[in-house]
Amino acid sequence: MACENNLVVKQIMDLYSQISNLESLKPSKNVDTLFGQLVSTCLPTDTNIDVTKIHDEKVKDMRSHLIKLCGEAEGYLEQHFSTIIGSFEDNPLNHLHIFPYYNNYLKLSKLEFDLLAQHTSHVPTKIAFIGSGPMPLTSIVLAKFHLPNTTIHNFDIDSQANALASNLVSRDPDLSKRMIFHTTDVLNAKEGLDKYDVVFLAALVGMDKESKVKAIEHLEKHMAPGAVLMLRSAHGLRAFLYPIVDSCDLKGFEVLTIYHPSDDVVNSVVIARKLGGSSEARSSQIGRCVFMPCNCSKVHAIINSRGMKKSMIEEFSAIE
Which Gene3D superfamilies does UniProt cross-reference here (predicted)? Predict the structure, then answer.
């Protein structure tokens, strides 16, 4: 159990103290340095710290506030670089590498595509991305490199963010036709959500447990039965940076995979399928997701073409 006497937690609390006293979270040398140190501190996976078991109220409150600060800083960072990249007169998509975390998005999007391919029998024709922001890199990377015939609808509550994002793809002859932007709160998006084969919920949508669950419950009400929900979570120390999505938060969904990266990709990936269909299908699936006990999980390694362990996936299987 972590507490403020733990050395790593002390380091995180010290960085939190410095970050929370900053006058602005907009990109600057000091801001970039502090958040870089924070991410480096939270990346190690060889730790026994489980933030869900923290009982120290001071640490719990710090984590809650730190996650919100990280979300705010990430928003400013994306806005800053989207403005710069969008100012190029040629195709802005040729300059995405300027964004400091572009390579991480390449890895994360490839990971999500590969995991999605394991659980879908066809290439999705329409995808919704909820909380796409001013720099919709996941949508861009998926459309550009992995899903060349898929239309991606991007939803964000911020009209300025959508204007910046739309500008990034406006001069691309392909993505300008396949990337569509909607300015709305996810909780107001009802009609049409049942038309998407896959729905992505961004990590920054719902920065606390209550609002995250509220967004998931809304999607469960309006997604089509059998549609796939992709979410981003966090594990270990990385949960000081992003909210955790637990299987118990996904009532009405069949949890297919929870993947915890061990490299510099910070977010965990959760894949779930909306329950529905025949009553027989529903009854066979309820035990797999709505009332998920701890002993129904199994862990296995993905083996690459050379037979080497690449990473670990936690998959939830049916109760026998």
Answer: Vaccinia Virus protein VP39
Q: CA-CA distance, 310 to 262, in Å (whole number)?
A: 9
Distances (CA, A) of 140 to 40, 150, 173, 319: 26, 11, 13, 38
Closest-CA residue to 199 (of 259, 109, 306, 272): 272
- Residue 94 near residue 86, CB atoms below 8 Å: no
Give the mean model confidence (pLDDT) for residues 71-75: 96
Backbone angles phi, psi at 134, to 5 degrees: -75, -15
Q: What is the pLDDT of residue 4?
A: 55
Q: If we measure between CA atoms, which residue out of 265, 262, 263, 284 comes closest to residue 273?
A: 284
CB 51 within 8 A of CB 247: no
Predicted confidence (pLDDT) at residue 9 exceeds the cutoff of 50:
yes
81-85, 108-112, 236-240, 282-286 — which is least confidently predicted? 282-286
Pairing relationship of beta strands 151-156 and 179-183 according to DSSP bridges: parallel
d(CA 269, CA 242): 12
Kindly indicate the confidence band of residue 207, based on its pLDDT and cuts at 50, 70 and 90: confident
Confidence category of residue 3, pLDDT binned at 50, 70, 90: low
CB 297 within 8 A of CB 314: yes
